[in-house]
Specification:
The chain is built from 14 helices and 19 strands. By secondary structure, it is of the alpha/beta class. The chain has two domains: 4-59; 75-456, no CATH class. A hairpin with a 2-residue loop joins strand 2 (37-47) and strand 3 (50-59). Helix 2 (108-116) packs parallel to helix 14 (419-431) and helix 4 (145-153) packs parallel to helix 13. 48% of the residues are buried.
Length: 456
């Protein structure tokens, strides 16, 4: 039976006052999972008294996988908060056209800034992956998005590592040159960086990935024939700590060209990549990341011809919008993944092991930083775990939510105009400075006279 991941558009009635959203969703999970296992969730808009949601569902049996016993919406409340170190979680949801973080690693400078205001930064591939570039800060932990969600829900912990054995699983491309680029990228990582990625599997036929857009304009897609990948992961079990994936993604040529020639629309590939890695991490409890392969070696030349400018044929697309440029200076698009997975933390699911002082858990999370208007599982987990949230203004992302309508505790939600201001807010939180005291006018403290009644 084929194992696949598909995306579903669903409407969910909102609970009164938006209280207890995760418990409410957990009660409905089996009903809207379409007979599969929910692995990815986002609220794209609130329409009247309903949540407009997009749900990624894994269909098919995975008998040898180490599947998590936890449902997608299960929350394990944290009982204490670690004040000794300051840990920031930085999320830019994939495939929403974020103003910063919507393209090839263009949120990496923001990550580097936020890392300076933190002891530890936890972030995900969409933030720092830029094809053959990856400027992840030294004090950052690189995990895929569903791992961040489960960390904040309290159902897993993260174990820091200095090096992983990275298994590379790649599509055996119909053009030898593309296959060669991927193999060369792996060997370059071994020779020039010292990464442990000496085992490479060329999958033929490979799993299938196709990208498209949801009604909300969010990049999603479908992944089919995952049993081909899972068979490799089962056969190689015990010989790897993380898995790097690279394959082609089907997307219409005309739409691809429109994206490249535009001024920064929604990246069409990231959404389906996240669906793939969510499935792998959820089923095997290992770090994973995906990079796309070119559909054809002559694609860039075709693009130059398509725009009717012969001078651009040799240079492909010419000078592109800066946030897309990293993809135009790369061949295999793979090195960012290898660098990130090299030190990606292990996923700890055992409750006793999660209590070890070296394992990072939800109790260690000091703050969540994310673009405004986004409501995914990290947002909902932060809401219910009483974690401070800094929402950074974003005029372009296609989420349509008002975060202020959620039942935050006083002072829990903070709005920043940009990531420079967000970094300042992190410094204030870290230093115990009440942010309101830095703004003018400074309102007078409330005062009241209380006259207790006399006993007897």
């Amino acid at each position: 039976m084929s194992i696949k991941v598909t995306e579903h558009i669903i409407k969910v009635p909102a609970p009164r006052g938006h209280y207890g959203i995760l418990a409410h969703l957990a009660d409905l999970e089996r009903k809207f999972s379409h007979g599969g296992r929910a692995i990815r969730f986002v609220i794209s808009a609130v329409v009247g008294s309903d949540y407009q949601c997009e749900l990624g569902v894994l269909h098919g049996s995975t008998p040898q996988a180490d599947e998590s016993p936890h449902g997608l919406f299960e929350l394990r409340p944290r009982r204490v908060v670690n004040r000794e170190r300051f840990t920031t979680v930085f999320v830019v949801p994939t495939g929403i056209g974020a103003e910063i973080g919507g393209h090839a690693g263009d949120a990496a400078p923001a990550a580097r800034l936020l890392a300076q205001a933190s002891d530890t930064l936890v972030t995900h591939p969409n933030v720092v992956n830029a094809s053959d570039l990856n400027e992840i800060p030294d004090n950052a932990l690189y995990v895929e998005g569903s791992v961040i969600s489960r960390l904040m829900m309290g159902t897993i912990g993260l174990e820091r590592r200095t090096s992983n054995r990275v298994l590379v699983v790649m599509e055996e491309h119909r053009e030898q040159a593309v296959t060669d680029w991927s193999i060369n990228a792996v060997n370059a990582a071994r020779a020039s960086c010292g990464y442990d990625c000496s085992e490479l599997v060329r999958l033929k036929p490979s799993f299938d990935m196709s990208a498209h857009f949801s009604d909300a304009g969010r990049a999603i897609g479908a992944v089919d024939h995952l049993e081909r990948l899972f068979a490799v992961l089962d056969a190689k079990r015990g010989s790897y700590d993380a898995v790097a994936l690279t394959s082609t993604i089907k997307f219409p040529y005309d739409a691809t060209l429109e994206y490249w020639q535009g001024d920064g629309g929604v990246n069409p590939w990231g959404g389906v990549e996240a669906m793939l890695t969510h499935a792998v991490s959820a089923c095997y409890q290992i770090p994973s990341a995906h990079s796309p392969q070119l559909i054809a070696t002559d694609w860039l030349s075709q693009a130059g011809e398509e725009v009717g400018d012969p001078s651009r044929v040799q240079n492909g697309l010419g000078v592109v919008e800066p946030t897309m440029a990293a993809e135009c200076v790369s061949l295999a698009f793979l090195h960012c993944v290898l660098k990130g997975l090299h030190r990606s933390p292990g996923i700890v699911v055992d409750r006793d092991a999660m209590r070890h002082h070296s394992v990072l858990t939800s109790s260690d999370v000091s703050c969540l930083v994310q673009p405004d208007r986004c409501i995914g599982l990290p947002t909902l987990a932060a809401l219910e775990q009483r974690m401070p949230v800094i929402a950074v203004a974003d005029k372009r992302n296609n989420m349509r939510n008002d975060l202020a309508n959620l039942p935050w505790a006083p002072g829990q939600l903070m709005l920043a105009q940009n990531y420079v201001e967000a970094a300042g807010m992190l410094c204030a939180l870290r230093g115990g400075v009440q942010i309101g005291s830095l703004r003018r006018p400074l309102h007078k403290a409330k005062s009241e006279v209380v006259s207790p009644t006399k006993e007897g």
